[in-house]
Design brief:
Strand order of the largest sheet: 2-1-3-4-5-6
Radius of gyration: 22 Å
Number of helices: 14
Strand content: 15-25%
Largest sheet: 6 strands, parallel
Order of helices and strands: EHEHEHEHEHEHEHEHEHEHEHEHHH
Helix content: 25-40%
Distance between the termini: 39 Å
């Protein structure tokens, strides 16, 4: 399938993706642009994007008229730099926007690039606190039509070849930073007390993290729990909703995170979340209503939180309903798209060149 082409005169916003390898930024562009394109002329440019995303070749951006005002929405340093070059060297009439998801202070180089932006978006209040200039907080949203609870969770598990038991999951890249070891250690302590519970670890370990994964597998085997703590391979992004739908509880054990969409994706599927207080998790999960929040890296508190949750099926059921409602009420992708498009319109209405 060829990419969706857009004529230059219809383009109002350009969202560069200057990284071929799949990343969280790329995933954001892939899910968000088609929704934004319903009400504004937005395209992506760069490699590694699927055909359904409105797209133009990078060379065509360079050849576009410099007289027409457009927005350039960068999400990486390289993209901020290119936007500045397009505006100040190639004399394109661009309004420059940068989205920051960083949970730490920016380097001097990044701060220099940010100083050249016309507007800055932060993906959480925590991210905004690390910026040295005003920003607009626009939290990520979820496609609640794609991510939704299954009609019958037990039957859905059966259809994917999983036990029909209560199921707990930990999804994402497998490495120490993501806290996969904390999840496994907590499951090793909890599962012997709950014979009707299965735990899933799903994700990919990069080459340098394979010994870390092998160590976890060996630990599980030594405990004799290899039939109850299952290690599953990474699946394509479009298949993830059905894997959230098998869960009764998601654990997000990260030691560090930029933003972290997994809690929203899970809650949209009616799955409560036990998450650490990193990234934007404490702005997404409502402690005691849609799950629990605990400090990062604390196996004891993780074990206790999971144990307490499993001990009360009624609480788990209440949290499940509250989780779905919580996402529908404040974290829809349509709301994120509308907030960004509003910002673009404000910038486009200001026809100052910025040169």
């Amino acid at each position: 399938m060829s990419k969706i082409a857009v004529t230059p005169d219809k383009i109002e916003v350009i969202a560069p993706n200057l990284k071929r390898r799949l990343s969280g930024v790329t995933a954001t562009i892939v899910r968000l642009l088609p929704v934004q394109a319903r009400s504004i002329g937005i395209v992506a440019t760069g490699p590694g994007l699927p055909a359904h995303v409105p797209h133009v070749p990078l060379w065509s951006v360079i050849r576009m008229s410099g007289r027409t005002c457009r927005v350039w929405h960068a999400r990486r340093n390289t993209e901020m730099l290119m936007g500045l070059i397009l505006r100040h060297v190639l004399r394109k009439h661009l309004k420059l926007v940068f989205t920051s998801a960083s949970q730490r202070h920016h380097t001097r180089y990044t701060r220099l690039l940010i100083s050249g932006m016309d507007a800055v978006v932060a993906t959480s209040r925590k991210s905004a606190s690390y910026l040295r200039r005003p920003s607009r907080v626009i939290i990520h949203g979820i496609d609640t039509g794609t991510f939704h609870p299954p009609e019958d969770r037990r039957a859905h598990r059966r259809s994917l070849g999983l036990p029909e038991n209560v199921t707990i999951g930990c999804y994402g890249r497998i490495r120490r930073q993501k806290g996969t070891d904390v999840f496994v250690d907590a499951m090793l302590a909890v599962l012997p007390q709950y014979t009707g519970v299965t735990a899933l670890v799903m994700g990919r370990a990069a080459h340098k993290h394979i010994p870390f994964l092998q160590g976890l597998r060996e630990k599980v085997a030594q405990a004799g729990l290899q039939d109850r703590i299952l290690f599953l391979p990474e699946v394509p992004v479009e298949e993830m909703p059905r894997w959230y739908q098998v869960l009764d509880l998601l654990v997000a054990p990260q030691r560090w995170e930029g933003f972290g969409l997994t809690p929203l994706e899970a809650m949209a599927c009616g799955v409560p979340v036990i998450a650490t207080t990193v990234g934007a998790f404490d702005e997404l999960v409502v402690d005691g209503k849609t799950g629990r929040l605990i400090p990062p890296g604390d196996v004891g508190q993780m074990r206790a939180a999971v144990d307490t949750t499993l001990a009360s099926p009624a609480t788990l059921q209440q949290w499940s309903a509250a989780s779905r409602h919580h996402v529908e009420a404040g974290f829809r992708i349509e709301d994120e798209a509308a907030a960004l498009n509003t910002l673009y319109r404000e910038l486009l209405d200001d026809q100052t060149n910025g040169l």
